[in-house]
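Case study.
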Amino acid sequence: MKLYELARLIRSKNAGPFMLTIDILFENQEYYNKTIDSGKINANFISDIYGINVEEVKIFNCPESLAIKATFPRSVSSGGVGDNDLFGGQQHGPLVEIEI
Amino acid sequence: MEPIKILSATGILGTGFSEDTLNRALDQNPDVIGCDAGSTDAGPHYLAEQVALASKEATKRDLKLLIKGAQQKEKKIPVLIGSAGNAGGNQQVDWTVNIVKEIAEEERFTLKVASIYSELNNNQVLSYYKENKLKSLENAPPIDENLIKELTRIVGVMGPDPYIKALEEGADVIIAGRSSDTSIYSAVPIMKGLDSGSVWQAAKILECGAASAEQRLHPDCMFAWIYPDYFVVEPPNPKMRCTPLSVVSHMLYENPDPYYLYEPSGMLDTSESHYESYGERGVKVSNSKYIQSEQYTIKLEAVQHMGYRRISIGGIKDPVILKQLPDYISEASSVVKRKVKESLDIDEKDYKLLFKVYGESAVLGDREPVKNHPLNEVGLYFEVIGRTPEEAKSIMSIASHTILHHPVKEWSGLISNLAFPFSPPYAETGPVYQFALNHVVEVDDPCELFKINYSVIERGEPVS
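After joint prediction, the assembly is written out as follows.
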């Protein structure tokens, strides 16, 4: 299944002007477990997709909220010279259709 | 023990709430009404230029209902507004206080209004820097003495302490500069002697108004009952409800870490918090912890001026150009730079010419994982950032003309490669700023960076 079929919400957002955070909130316990068990979404995976250093990626598996969260630095601060996404709201795009 | 009852009016002052919801919440006799007015979310412009994000009319509507509701009670309820005018600069505090004064005059209120200012001057920050009291946070930009001297505006993000001071000095309404989200809601509990994990996590949940409801139908109020070892949160609007999942999920939103939240005086630890339904629409949260830190720190936010911007956007549809787009852009860009030097005698280091290709990689930039997919059409956005508005204008004239007509070997004769949607084909967007600090300053006194002024109004007339 594709990630968006398992999730009730996939979103990205600024976490302050210098960091970006991606939340994947799953539809139910089964879909959360399925994704966690696949082992697919980890720091290496995020680092490959976005071309960032793996040490800069933090992954949180949150069973109580049925969510996986990834946090990493912005390449340019929010609204700074050369920034592409003031609110950081569209950076999750490459994750939506990944196969789990 | 009686709980401490807190009403959060809405997520951002000026985005509104239902009057009916507010009245239901007021029936619960809250100990304090709070509302956040700010965020860094909308970028550096608001701190630099001191304009408010919400309109005056919308801000006044919200403030009027809150102050009226607070003043109607036998035991008046303090109203606390944080991060006034979005960025919490001094002019934004004054702008908001003036709205309160207008309301007081119209309603003939008797009020003591506290203005808490949070701006620091450059020399203050320079002293902290020289004393090695500035500590960088994650992904902080590099700083040095010159940068600190050139910063356009700097604010300190206050904790609850200046609010407590103003409350103890009798303020009915507090309009505060830049504040941590939680300070607005933790101030009254801490003043009453409760400084627990339940207070700080409740404050974090309250900060976004109704956002922690299962379905936030529109911006609206949120209410919390805080006890020493747990709190209950419930939307006062009967059409909304909180669930354990909606509340715990809210801890993810905009936070870099879902479990640990750093505050001026310590760290909130929600890693073992327990969430359970409470009644039909409420959630009880227990086992939140707060760990006091040894050193009190104030986060600083600052902006630096980067120049003046002109922007342009044009569509490209010709497959011949689309096939060689990266080369086309880099060649045209080199020609622009050569012409700018020849015609204007401006060096490359003294301006910026930046491109984004909408339809290809504009949103993710260098982080875009999909490469070389076929393009049907793209929007080519380009911008010039010059040292002055005039230089930006002169450079943009050259850039738009050059990029429009830049030749390719497949076509002979003059070509026009950009479909501009407007005339003139570029626009001035004013000064450009950038966030320049992601640092904390170590302070001895939580209030040392913040100055409080009072305005006393009697039956609508200013007394002092």
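Observations recorded in class. The beta strands of chain A are 7-14, 19-26, 58-62, 67-73. The interface with chain B takes residues 13-19, 21, 23, 25, 49-52, 58, 60, 62, 64-67, 69, 71, 73-75, 77-82, 84-87, 90-91, 93-94 of chain A (CB under 8 Å). We will return to this complex in the next lecture.
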